Amino acid sequence: MVNSKQPLTNARLMAVQAVYAQAQSGESWDKVISRFLLGEVGGELIEEKSGIERYVSLPEADQSLFAHLTQYVRDNKEQLNDMVEGAFSEKIQRDKVDLTLRSILLVGVAEFFVNNQLDAPIIINEYTDIARSFYEGPQIKIVTAVLAKMAKMLKG
């Protein structure tokens, strides 16, 4: 589960939510980003306790990181999609790559550019943890494998 006490982690999760929301709704990027920054949407996750699910608000997210990540995806989505597709191995089953997983991957790859001074293992770990908040299956390994391949390619 994502550590809900870290503003940077929360910004990453919100960026994934925003990329998902934009793709799902077709709203303009500026509107989606603005709605998230104003707290109108996003900033929540589902917590399960004793088989009961409830929405839990995330503490404050780093708005600067959120804005940088979402704006980078907005401005470079086609290139990022191509990079993600190119990082898939023959072992990765494309039917496992739904919109949520693609959103995690797009934001994860974007962070290599936005936060290029951050060590690749930290970025990979952050997005693997985010994937764990949505999945229990092979999608977690897909995030780790794709981001590790991208890190090797981009960071050398």
Core attributes:
N-utilizing Substance Protein B Homolog, Chain A; 6 helices; mainly alpha; 156 residues
What does it look like?
The protein is mostly helical. The protein has a single domain (7-151), classed as NusB-like (N-utilizing Substance Protein B Homolog, Chain A). The chain has helices spanning 7-25, 29-37, 63-87, 99-114, 120-132, 139-155; strands at residues 44-49, 52-57. Helix 1 (7-25) runs antiparallel to helix 2, helix 1 (7-25) crosses helix 3 (63-87) and helix 4 (99-114) runs parallel beside helix 6 (139-155). The N and C termini lie far apart (30 Å). The model has no long low-confidence stretch (mean pLDDT 86).
Strand content: 5-15%
Q: Cα-atom Rg, whole angstroms?
A: 15 Å
Number of strands: 2
Instruction: Describe the strand arrangement of the main beta sheet, using strand numbers.
Output: 1-2
Give the helix/strand class: mainly alpha
Largest sheet: 2 strands, antiparallel
Instruction: Report the span from N to C terminus.
Output: 30 Å
CATH topology: N-utilizing Substance Protein B Homolog, Chain A
Q: Could you report the average pLDDT, rounded to the nearest whole number?
A: 86
Reading off the top of the CATH hierarchy, the class is best stated as Mainly Alpha
Let me know the CATH homologous superfamily: NusB-like
Q: Please, how many helices? A: 6
Helix amount, in percent?
Answer: 55-70%
Overall geometry: globular
Order of helices and strands: HHEEHHHH
Residue stretches low in confidence (pLDDT < 50, at least 5 long) are: none
Total individual domains: 1
- Give the second-level CATH assignment, the architecture: Orthogonal Bundle
